[in-house]
Amino acid sequence: MSSGPAGQAARSSVQPITPAPSGVQRRATLRTQDGVAIEAAYDPGPGPGGGVAVVVAHGFTGDLSRPHVRRIARVFAQRAAVITFSFRGHGGSGGHSTVGDREVFDLAAAVEWARSLGHARVVTVGFSMGGSVVVRHAASHRGRTEARADAVVAVSAPARWYYRGTAPMRRLHWVVTRPAGRVVGRFGLRTRIHPHEWDPVPLSPVESVALMGTTPLLVVHGTRDPYFPVDHPRALAAAAPEGAELWLEEGMGHAEHAASDELVGRIAAWATASWTSATPTETSATAD
To answer: Is the separation of the CB atoms in 125 and 57 below 8 Å?
Structure first.
C-alpha cells in the first residue's frame, strides 16, 4: 500500500503548538518524514516535566478524539505524560491509511515530539494495528536517535500479515482490498484507505520483534480476542531476542474497547517502572 518501505530511521518536524480544546493540554500538527500532517495531543500527566511519556498508537479506524482512545489516555495520564495522535488517513490527519506500513513514520513523529517536550523516557503503547506499528518502529529506530522508544507495549497485535483465520479479519480484508470496502471505510468508518497494495511488503510484526534488540517488550492479549488467536501473542513474545513479558488476559476481547481501566492501569505501572530487574514471564489474569 505504499511506494516504498517505512522501516528506515526517519526525521520529522513539529509545527507550532495550536490552542487546545477543552480537556486537552496541548495540540500540535506533526509533519512526518514523508510529508504527511499528523494531528497530535499532549497531556503532561501528574508529575513534573521530563519524566516518562506514553505515546498511544490506536487501532485501525480509531483516532485521538474517539471516546475509547480518550479513555485509555485518561488512565495513562494518572501516571505519566501522554501523547495521542491520529494515524494517517484517520481523524484530522492527512494522507491515507496503509494499514501498518508507513504508519511507522507517524509514530516516529509523535515520539520525537515527546522528546522535544523534555521527556527522557518514552514508552510506545499500540493497540491492534497500532501494536504492529510499535514493534516495527522499535526495530527500525534503535540506538541514540530522537525517535527511539525506550520500551514497547503491544496490545491485541497481529504476529503476521494477511491473516484471514477469523470472520472479523475476513471482513477487514474486504474493507481494505475492495473498492466498495474502501468506500465503506471512508464514509462508514471515517478512515481513508490507500488503494494500492504494499510494494514492497514490510517486515511482519514477528520479524520486527526479532530486530528489537534489548528494548523491553510487553505483549498483552485477550484469550477471547475475536480477531487474532493466542498463537499471535505467543509468537511475538517468543521472537524477542532478550525475551518479552506476556500477559494473557482471561476473557478479554480485542484492543482498546476490551481493555479495562484496571488493565490499562497495570500497563501504565509497567511502563513507568524500572525494567532492569524484570524477568520475562507469561501470566494469565482475569479481565473485568
So the answer is: yes
